[in-house]
Design brief:
Length: 180
């Protein structure tokens, strides 16, 4: 059996932001992919994690906990959110190894149900190391999605030009035409 199609309007962001994007607005109503375990299964499959981490009640609970910690970190004060993110990160570690192909690092978890949540929290640390100023919230009215700005000059404003960007431009055009 395959997981259902991912219904979210924005996918493919780095894992931390993709987890945050499991909540979105549709027609003014907040949708939550992590409301049930079948939604967690969709998220895991969308991120290539389904085989190693089956979606169960524990995985769902840990994903929700990580999502709230990451939301606090991105939206609020990193200093206040650090203990929340650290609480998720406490459930795993990176194991350094020497393999036939050379040095390798792999995550280890005492409890595998923490794996996906830990990987998302670790992804956030990677984003902070790369370019924290490029972690953005969409500027679209009523949009609650997050993205990592990979544009050359770092000025991306919307989660999607086709959705929020187009609505903003159409709204500005309408406002200008009413003035004339």
């Amino acid at each position: 059996m395959t997981a259902a199609r991912d219904p979210r309007p924005l996918t493919g962001e780095p894992l931390a932001l993709d987890l945050l994007n499991t909540r979105w607005n549709r027609d003014g109503i907040t949708q939550d992919l992590l409301a049930r375990t079948d939604g967690a299964a969709v998220w895991l499959a969308s991120n290539g994690l389904a085989g190693a981490h089956p979606a169960g009640a524990e995985v769902l609970h840990h994903l929700r906990e990580a999502r709230e910690a990451l939301k606090a970190a991105v939206d609020g004060s990193p200093r206040q959110a650090a203990p929340l993110v650290d609480a998720v990160l406490a459930h795993g570690r990176i194991r350094a190894r020497l393999t036939a192909e050379g040095p390798a690092e792999e995550p280890e978890f005492a409890d595998p149900s923490w794996g996906p949540a830990w990987l998302a929290a670790r992804s956030y640390l990677d984003l902070l190391t790369r370019a924290p100023e490029r972690i953005r919230t969409c500027s679209g009215t009523g949009c609650v999605l997050y993205f990592f700005d990979t544009s050359r000059n770092g000025t991306r404003r919307w989660c999607s030009m086709a959705a929020c960007g187009n609505r903003a431009k159409a709204s500005r055009h309408y406002a200008r035409s009413k003035e004339n």
